[in-house]
Amino acid sequence: MNLVRAAVAENRLNDRDRAIVREQYKEQSIDWVHLVRIDPKALDLDEFQIDLYDRRITVKKRDRPPSLDSIPNLWSGRAIQASDPLGWDPGTLRDVRLYRQDDGGVRGSIYIDDIVYALRPLSDGVHALIRQDLSRLHSDQDDVRIRPVPVKPRKAISPEPSSSTQNPAQMEMIRIAVGYTAAAVGGGPLEAMFVEIEDAIKKANESFAANNIAMRLELAAWADSAGYIERSDGAAIATTLAALAEGPDGALWLPHAARDGERADLLAMIVGAQGDTICGQANQVGSSKETALFVFKRGCLFSHTLTHEVGHLLGADHQPGSALDPPVFVYGHGFQRLPEPGIAGWSTLMATDCPPQRCPRQNFWSSPLREHEGETAGTAAAHDNARVLSENKARVAAFHPPPDGASRKRDTNSLPRYARASANSNSRAFIIASNPSMSAMGRHAR
Ligand SMILES: [Zn+2]
Question: Whole-angstrom Cα distance, residue 63 to residue 269?
Fold first, then answer.
């Protein structure tokens, strides 16, 4: 059985869907968009084919590790090509995630090394099959705003974890508020952007589980900043972060209000930023509550950009040579495995790209305790971002502790709330509601 059933001609699309397809081509890493009809019944099977136009693959279902949440409607597996060596374990290089929607649509992603094929439902059963070359993304060398000085001078780094009061096994919940611009929504349905970011947060949580780091990200609030106009000259990310850093009195006051109202530890903005060459920017490597801000580009979500910038805020940095010098943590660097003849390259979440070679980013953190392809994915001395996260998660999770000392372990079904400026635009009044249409009862504040 083949998930992809038939091609659809572009002139069959309605105006809105045609605009969504055109929007894809503005991102320079998108190779092509094909329109297809699919057969959702394929997801009843443990193994099926997918015709991806420039290749045909077999996908095989995999059980999710018991440490991970079961996600309703998720078919999770691995892509196999005829040329793959027998018994080869590609890790997350061949990750397949397909979500079945109630309306029969299927959305998701299929990774083949650093190529990702995304499936995106349009109207009337038509789907966009989008090929993106992730090697043309993340030149992340310049994705930290405040470069010269870490948040506070660190005392001489001991080889032991820095704090004796914290319990590394204690699960820490780090809450995040996300503001969005009109360019991030890109003329498509708001809901489509929401599910993409929610999926990115699930993948971040999978990366923590992959390194046995007892922390989770939880989405606390959305903030509608559609009135903030992004620059289109390649500086959208840097200028949006600068505006966010102006704080609750700046142009992006609403995301700050949402963050405070919903007690989020981190504050982020998602942007369209189609002219930008970087994928995101974090305010600081090792942030304080005031500097725990980042901006990320929607077109880079498949490159684990959200997770990468969160890593910076917790103190993790790139591979040596592309990181702060002196480092915030001498052991807190990403790890790159450069390709050699017969050996494919790969890298961990905090590593940057390695042009002209390819070292696709995998969804786990550098650590001497972690292996990939039979090789150690880090060193205790220099490449242990997992340790940085374990040592800093409690500090960051306490930026906005829950009221009354309530447990950080929240109901996993707790849903984010939605903030929007109220109609009277002269005052900075806003509404927070439990759904984006604001039809639910809101409360006024400020
Ligand atoms: Zn970075």
Answer: 33
Share of residues in the chain with pLDDT > 90 (%): 71
Residues around the ion ligand 1 (C-beta < 5 A): 140, 143
Please work out, in degrees rounded to the nearest 5, the angle formed at the alpha carbon of residue 432 by the alpha carbons of 444 and 253: 85
- Give the three-class secondary structure for 192: helix
CA–CA dist 316, 387 (Å, integer): 9
User: What is the whole-number distance in angstroms between the Cα of residue 312 and the centre of ligand 1?
Assistant: 7
CA 293–ligand 1 middle distance (angstroms): 13
- Kind of pairing, strands 106-112 and 336-337? unpaired
Least confident window among 173-187, 395-409, 411-425, 429-443: 429-443
* 416 C-alpha to ligand 1 centroid (Å): 27
Ligand 1 centroid–CA 26 distance in Å is 23
245's enclosing H/E stretch is helix 236-245
Question: 313: CA distance to ligand 1 center in Å?
Answer: 10
Distance 317 CA to ligand 1 centre (A): 7
d(CA 195, CA 201): 10
Asked if the model's pLDDT at residue 267 lies above 50, the reply is: yes
β-pair type (106-112, 115-121)? antiparallel
Answer yes or no: are the C-beta atoms of 93 and 135 closer than 8 Å.
Answer: no
Q: pLDDT tens digits for 115-130?
A: 999 999 999 999 999 9
Tell me how many helices (H) and strands (E) the chain has.
7, 22
CB 285 within 8 A of CB 312: yes
CA of 152 to the centre of ligand 1 (A): 19
Q: Is residue 271 pLDDT above 60, yes or no?
A: yes
Question: Does residue 66 carry a pLDDT above 70?
Answer: yes
Q: SS3 for 404?
A: helix
Check pLDDT > 70 for residue 139: no
- CA angle 372–376–382, rounded 5-degree value: 130
Q: pLDDT band for position 423 (50/70/90)?
A: confident
- pLDDT for 436 equals 80
Distance 411 CA to ligand 1 centre (A): 31
Q: What pTM did the predictor assign?
A: 0.91
